[in-house]
Amino acid sequence: MTKFPHLRQDFTASLVVFLVALPLCVGVAVASGVPAELGLVTGIVGGLVTGFLPGSSLQVSGPAAGLTVLVFEAVQEYGLPALGIIVLAAGLLQLIMGALKLGRWFRAISVSVVEGMLAGIGLVLIAGQLYATAGLKAPASGIDKILGLPGAAVDAAGSTAALTSLVLGAATIAVMVGWKKLPKRVQAVPGALAAVILAIVATAVFDLPVATVEVKGLLDSIQPPGLDAFGGLGVGIIGTIIAFTLIASAESLFSAAAVDRLHDGPRTQYDKELMAQGAGNTICGALGALPMTAVIVRSSANVSAGARTKASRVLHGVWLLLFAALLPSTLALIPLPALAGILVHAGWKLIPFAKMVPLWKEHRGEALILVVTAVSIVAVNMFEGVLIGLALSVVKTAWEASHLKMEIIDKGAGPIQAYLSGNATFLRLPKILDSLESLPQDRPVTLDLSGLHHLDHACRTALENWAARHSSTGTEPVKVTETEKAEEAEAEKVTAA
């Protein structure tokens, strides 16, 4: 025991994480439009491969609800054989980015963009799985899923089978929500697992006419991408690969930061963690399985259960492997409405409702970025929605960096004094010129730039041109006062000339 001083805590935690991961692995796979066994394969690789590698000691990797929408769209557009190619390429990109030490740069991505991305995914996931709870086929696009819900409700109301399926899905959600209010001893069994077990029992006892998981067998589901899978792929798949890479990496590394706040153990090494995720996704792609990310639900369960080392997440992969090898037929008992209910609950938790009001009060620009990113993902697609969010974040940062204050003092006699302070960039140039050009042409002007922290080339050129125009009417030349650094730079230019 001295060699493994925390084996008991890690063993117990691994069982808890396994019980949490099992229904989520299956649910994410079914919602992604792939065989249920592929979700287990990704969970196994997340435990046995990524779990063994350095990076973050306590966070757990596997198939994530956050990639469900993207995977479903990719499978619909390119087919299941192409999924392995996409995941494999994304994994290799992650390995390259980790080797180039780009992992830490993901922390520079605006939190609002990431939360907006997750909120958009959550909305599309909820909308799509609401159809599944009623046993109905969901439309393809995110916006059509949401707009089609009233019609789906009418269709479900006229069908006994759909209503039965809907009630079972709603009951699953109710169990998961209410499970946290039960005694701690009862909560030792994860709510998602309890909800699935109760749904299986209810379906069997009452002989409910609901669809269950289709089982193909673990080995039959694993289909490594062959050379023929590359044949029908076009240039468009590159965007999908980049989307997989960026979203999976951002979600994993933001999860790592969140998990680090939950424990006092070793901190995450971001570049190594990115390479660990890349290694896992490379293997998942080679097996034709789902992509993986670090998952905050499983990771927080791991920490809460008392895990102390990476042994807990490796062991959870062992338990998933044993289940997939010894009890695969058990999956056929799981009702699809129950899995849909689990994912509706997971999608709801992706939307940061509690943060929206404080964010709006304190940082309205960030709140706007979050909302626009989420709406763009729903209205357009995942990749372009994230790009829109990133572009807005860059524009906001540039706008704030060009904060400028302009003060005009006119005492009625003598020169008019104009003071500029802050950062004068091309973004503020229209405001600067409008104010200066509104000054009387027949009065001398003193332009004080000593309060500027930064004056870019566009602004300097525009101010020089304005000063020349203002002085061309015979008025006393504009007197310009600059900072010492700016004066020194000008002096150096004169000396060089």
Automatic annotation (TrEMBL):
<dbReference type="GO" id="GO:0055085">
    <property type="term" value="P:transmembrane transport"/>
</dbReference>
<dbReference type="InterPro" id="IPR011547">
    <property type="entry name" value="SLC26A/SulP_dom"/>
</dbReference>
<keyword id="KW-0472">Membrane</keyword>
<feature type="transmembrane region" description="Helical">
    <location>
        <begin position="38"/>
        <end position="58"/>
    </location>
</feature>
<feature type="transmembrane region" description="Helical">
    <location>
        <begin position="12"/>
        <end position="31"/>
    </location>
</feature>
<keyword id="KW-0812">Transmembrane</keyword>
<feature type="transmembrane region" description="Helical">
    <location>
        <begin position="230"/>
        <end position="254"/>
    </location>
</feature>
<feature type="transmembrane region" description="Helical">
    <location>
        <begin position="112"/>
        <end position="132"/>
    </location>
</feature>
<protein>
    <submittedName>
        <fullName>Sulfate transporter</fullName>
    </submittedName>
</protein>
<feature type="transmembrane region" description="Helical">
    <location>
        <begin position="318"/>
        <end position="348"/>
    </location>
</feature>
<dbReference type="GO" id="GO:0016020">
    <property type="term" value="C:membrane"/>
</dbReference>
<feature type="domain" description="SLC26A/SulP transporter">
    <location>
        <begin position="7"/>
        <end position="373"/>
    </location>
</feature>
<feature type="compositionally biased region" description="Basic and acidic residues">
    <location>
        <begin position="479"/>
        <end position="497"/>
    </location>
</feature>
<dbReference type="InterPro" id="IPR001902">
    <property type="entry name" value="SLC26A/SulP_fam"/>
</dbReference>
<dbReference type="Pfam" id="PF00916">
    <property type="entry name" value="Sulfate_transp"/>
</dbReference>
<feature type="region of interest" description="Disordered">
    <location>
        <begin position="470"/>
        <end position="497"/>
    </location>
</feature>
<feature type="transmembrane region" description="Helical">
    <location>
        <begin position="152"/>
        <end position="179"/>
    </location>
</feature>
<feature type="transmembrane region" description="Helical">
    <location>
        <begin position="191"/>
        <end position="210"/>
    </location>
</feature>
<feature type="transmembrane region" description="Helical">
    <location>
        <begin position="78"/>
        <end position="100"/>
    </location>
</feature>
<keyword id="KW-1133">Transmembrane helix</keyword>
<feature type="transmembrane region" description="Helical">
    <location>
        <begin position="368"/>
        <end position="395"/>
    </location>
</feature>
